[in-house]
Design a protein that fits this description.
Strand 8, helix 12 and strand 9 form a beta-alpha-beta unit. The protein has about 325 residues and is α/β, with parallel strands linked by helices. The strands form 2 sheets. A 5-stranded mixed beta sheet has the order 1-4-3-5-2. It has a 5-stranded parallel beta sheet with strand order 7-6-9-8-10, with helices on both faces.
Length: about 325
């Protein structure tokens, strides 16, 4: 049975005074999005990623052509699987409200119920980036459960960058290199900022986050060793892996021999680096990537290289 069966197809909205149009247009402002704890996905790429991740919107505004595309995508997802698998385990780390019953036809029906068609001029006028395909989805943030205990095998990145593009790139690197959680400090750009969502290809929507208190417990008790990305005068990744082995409490991890498999990586501000109070509290091992012809790598590139080097070094030791 087609997904739209039994549902009244929406009329095409043509007035700027329509409440749905006014709602989506008003949420172009980041301050309003943040205050209401909402996220918005502009364009086909992010909307499709939101669907793949199992996120459910409350409002979708699209032109008739884009609404038809979305219905087709929903039908394809229904025909290919009974449930919509997430790229990341949003169901285990995300909120009950943002993900509750967001599988299979239930999720698809929620997308359909939230869908409203409008003229192209109205939709583009309500978009943050009008050059993208005229479709916008707005919905709740995935509320993160507080992390009570961090295991010795977890790999965590604590980040305090200011540029949305940098944070988005770091999120993608974290997904690519097997990071389990991120801790976004108060001084960092918000991971649900529209620019972060775009630069992360929507993955910041599903990344599991934890608070600094959980990280503090894990490092202070020796469960996880701490390292930091440093532009200059740090250890090589190989040296850092050896020192991490020495710092880890014996037999605390899955290998049973004290060999570290998890870690906490601190990534600081683009120009100021890791804050002095964090250095004093956690005493992270500074890690520097040897480079040629340039003074140092940008923070996003350096984070990706450090993560890969640490992963390769620790995996080789275990």
């Amino acid at each position: 049975m087609p997904l739209g069966h039994g549902l009244r197809l929406p009329l095409v909205i043509s007035s700027r005074q329509n409440e749905i149009v006014k709602l989506v247009r008003g949420l172009r402002r980041w301050q309003r999005l943040r205050k209401q704890k909402l996220v918005r996905l502009d364009g086909r790429r992010l909307v499709d990623q939101g669907l793949e991740l199992g996120w459910a919107p409350t409002t979708v505004l699209a032109t008739p052509d884009e609404a038809a595309w979305l219905r087709q995508r929903l039908e394809e997802r229904q025909s290919h699987s009974a449930a919509l698998p997430a790229v990341l385990p949003l169901s285990s780390h995300g909120s009950q409200g943002a993900r509750a019953d967001n599988t299979g036809s239930t999720l698809q029906q929620r997308w359909l119920r939230s869908l409203h068609s409008a003229t192209e001029q109205l939709v583009r006028g309500a978009m943050v980036t009008p050059r993208l395909e005229p479709v916008v989805a707005v919905g709740p943030r995935p509320l993160q459960r507080l992390c009570q205990d961090i295991t010795p095998d977890e790999r965590i990145v604590v980040v305090a960058v200011q540029d949305p593009g940098n944070l988005g790139s770091i999120v993608r690197s974290c997904v690519a290199f097997g990071v389990d959680r991120m801790c976004v400090l108060d001084t960092c750009v918000d991971p649900y900022h529209p620019s972060v969502l775009r630069s992360s290809a929507g993955l910041s929507l599903a990344m599991p986050y934890c608070d600094l208190a959980a990280v503090t417990r894990a490092v202070s008790t020796g469960v996880l060793p701490a390292v930091s990305a440093s532009a200059h005068h740090g250890l090589t990744p190989a040296e850092a892996c050896q020192r991490m082995h020495e710092r880890t409490v014996p037999a605390t991890n899955s290998t049973g021999d004290g060999t570290p498999s998890g870690f906490v990586l601190f990534v600081g501000h683009e120009t100021r680096g890791v804050a002095p109070d964090l250095v004093d509290s956690f005493d992270p091992l500074p890690v520097t990537i040897p480079v040629r012809l340039v003074d140092s790598l940008g923070v996003a590139a350096a984070t990706a290289v450090v993560l890969q080097c640490l992963r390769a070094g620790l995996d080789a030791m275990t």
